[in-house]
Design brief:
The protein contains seven helices and 15 strands. The chain is of the alpha+beta class.
């Protein structure tokens, strides 16, 4: 069986130790494993075609997601599914789906005009971030309306979340199917390059993590959690993360990929739901 990993440029530019181990395990199990970085390949758009049994989207770039969409339109099998990755990458869509599923997430506003956030910023601090961002890039803390002047948003939608006060460290939660792991590390724009310290996962955090996966139709994913005074709050979600700092994770990832390739694991987006005025999920008939 032939696998292809759509990879991302790494910072620093060295292979992921986890993926190196996963590739080795899969090859020893008889899989043909290929991979490439979309930004480093030139291909005619009308000649993108399905040539592998399973594609694994390990990159969050617009080009990789577009290539995955083209393959999906031709019937390719992807892990995670393309629709799930597209919804997860769009923080506006993801925020709505997570809240509808009962996941504790910050109140979130979207607009096309930064100045329209001034009234909200007068009531409480905000986090302004790109609606398709990742790796912590482009995040601004707005503690008062005057701070909006320092925000230089990209063209397109502007997303603002209510600032959640935590204990100084983020909890990075990593999921492989039904297995949930967590590490702790201070947040920064470069924190994605370093591993965290493994920490226990209690029942509440595990339930929240698995609810995120069901809401977005993901099997390999990660979430950023802040431990607020009111409990865990999910502030970000991403598909196929790096799993840095999780001991012995490569065999579990390889096992999951093998089961998915064999059709023993399936993933799909759930039916649409909405949340009523008191925050309870309401299903569509």
């Amino acid at each position: 069986m032939k696998l292809f990993f759509l990879l991302v440029r790494r910072v620093p530019p060295v292979p992921s130790p986890v993926l190196v181990d996963v590739f080795d395990l899969l090859r020893r199990r008889g899989f043909e494993v290929d991979g490439g970085i979309a930004e480093e390949i030139v291909v005619r758009a009308d000649r993108i075609h399905v040539a592998h049994d399973l594609y694994l989207l390990k990159s969050h770039t617009e080009l990789s997601l577009s290539v995955a969409g083209s393959l999906d339109a031709q019937g390719a099998i992807l892990l995670n599914p393309y629709a799930s990755c597209a919804a997860t990458q769009n923080k506006i869509v993801a925020s709505r789906l997570l809240r509808a599923a009962g996941v504790p997430v910050p109140r979130t506003w979207v607009t096309g005009e930064l100045e329209l956030l001034r009234e909200i910023a007068a009531d409480f601090p905000l986090i302004v971030k790109p609606y398709r961002g990742h790796r912590g890039a482009g995040i601004h803390v707005v503690r008062r309306p005057a701070d909006l002047a320092a925000v230089k948003p990209d063209d397109g939608p502007i997303l603002a979340q209510e600032y959640v006060e935590g204990g100084g460290e983020d909890v990075k939660v990593y999921v492989v199917g039904d297995d949930v792991f967590a590490v702790r590390k201070p947040f920064s724009e470069t924190s994605f390059t370093v591993p965290g310290r493994p920490c226990p996962v209690d029942f509440e955090l595990r339930a929240i993590a698995l609810r995120c996966g069901r809401a977005l139709g993901l099997g390999l994913y990660g979430l950023d959690v802040i431990e607020s005074a009111d409990g865990p709050v999910v502030v970000d979600l991403n598909y196929f993360p790096g799993y840095k700092g999780v001991p012995g994770i490569a065999p579990l990832i390889a096992d999951y990929i093998e089961r998915y390739a064999a059709g023993e694991e399936t993933l799909e987006l759930p039916p649409p739901t909405f949340v009523d005025e008191v925050g309870e999920p309401v299903g569509l008939e």
